[in-house]
Amino acid sequence: MLVSIYMPTKNRVELLQRAVESVLAQTHREIELWVVNDGSTDATREYLDRVSAADPRLKAIHNERSLGAPASRNLAIQRANGVFVTGLDDDDSFHERRIEALVNAWQAHEAAGQKFSCLFTQDLWASPNASEVSNKPARVELADMFAFNLIGNQVFTKREYFIQAGLFDEHMPAWQDLDMFMRLLRKFGTALLVDEPLYILDLAPRGDRISVGNRSRIESAYERLANKWRDQPAAAQQALFLQLFGRLYGFDFEARDFKRFLRFGVHGRTLRTLAGILLRQRARRRSNDAARSAPHVLMFPKHSDNPYLNTLSERLERRGARVDDFTFARAVNGRYDVVHIHWPDLHLHARSSWRSVGKQARLALVMMYLRARGTRIVWTVHNLKPHERHHSLPERLFPLWYPRLCTHVIAMTAHGLAAAQQEFPSLKRKVAAVIPHGHYREAYPRAERRSDARAKLDLQDRFTFLFFGNIRPYKNVPGLIAAFRALPHDAVQLLIVGQPQKMDIDALQQSVADDPRIRLRLEFVTDRDVPLYMGAADVVVLPFDSILNSGSMLLALSFNRAVLAPRIGSLPEIQSKVGARWVTLYDAPLSQEHLIEAMRQDVSDDLQADLAAFDWDAVIQQTLDLYGQRDRTSSLAPAKTISAVSDTR
Q: Would you say the pTM of this structure is higher than 0.85?
């Protein structure tokens, strides 16, 4: 029995891969997965086209412009061929038995003569610190949904039921699931529970969630939904209003909200609900008062697929700081001591030059507003320029204003700070600190022993060079392949692992086709597989054409793997901290002689690199110290800056 799964996605290819894999791994094999790429500008199209070519059960729809999640879901449901449909968000995943269990339950309920509209399951709530299973009731009626969405964010039902209920409302700014499920229950009756945690809900904090952060959007959704249910009893309408102040959002119930509450009358059940809301609100305010002495930080981004950012935010929070993920709404409406920006050029990616200029104008206006309010704007300089060119006009404009509007600057090495100040002279007048990139030892399990890792990867147990990470033009992977092919040794192999971006995949594959010593794994690597690939390596090669800082070098050293890299950027400074035994530098271009030199290093499994210079305790203390240093300006005039360059010995 064919089941269709719909999934909208936009610019989250790293998360998308986990979701797609969880669907294609279902024990119920009669499935089709409709993924709607809603105008993504990252590598989503390439990833979906590659997977759909390998597995025809994945069917990709590419929207040239973004239509929004509801419209994308509707598009997939309308094209679906299955008897049943269900959904998946691109940042969540399925238990491998989810579809099998739902199909079996539906057939059992039908055989028993039950009338029902849809099925739902328990959720496994997965957060960075813990996991928990939901406690949903065995059945949900329409009346229950006015007080709370007890179903969750996905149902399993017949495709014809979805269509007859009217599909998703494409004009709802939020609460699309609640709205759809209420209409489904009104038309076809009760929703029944399959009491297993078969949907894995990712609760990692991110600013791109519709369900959090923007009160005006949530209130607009409420008004639209409430208008559809004006014929319901006043108590039900009042309960729906109180969903605005539930645990999910944390919005304060203010004096003006009492008038809106009382227009529905006085009802015992909703009065008890309101009392609970007010008690939680009081406790939250007391907690906020206690934490007010710690810095309140707006981080861009707070979380990503790079564990460096996750560790930085989590360690700051352990020290008492409050760290939120950046959104423009939070920047304008919130009160933050610090706005900390990594990779500001990510704000400016756009399909056209003029859209990019428009994004620059938005960011510049917000930064000027923050400066006027006395907010410290901290820039961690990871790169001097974007690795890939997008649009020449905005790239020329950006350095003219962005460094001037920052108040503080962090560089990861003394060389990086000097290079940044030379590239952007206005940074010489800013509060500055050299704070190293923390290691990755706490982010991953230990690497497996080389022989075990190679066996699991179906590699021969011989000396192994590894390239690991996104394969982008500036990383010069073709140069590494050419140098390795010139090696006269047979008892050596090169493993290239990563997702190509703006690269000719066919050319890469052709360049290694006649050399059995070279293995390509051109795919995104999940965190759980990083120790496996690092474990297989003797030497990690970073053949970059250009670089300022290298998280890849710290990643390899964190797994106690030797590194071969060019003598450019801040890499010599990192070598001085860990020693030439661990980092071999060469003068470009990379050649077979450099690879042979790296093979002479002692790389036994028992050696451990000394990464004391990259200790997270010191990194966090220096970051908090920098946050506490005030910019000596009260306006947008150039800063008379304190020099706060940390000792990096």
A: no
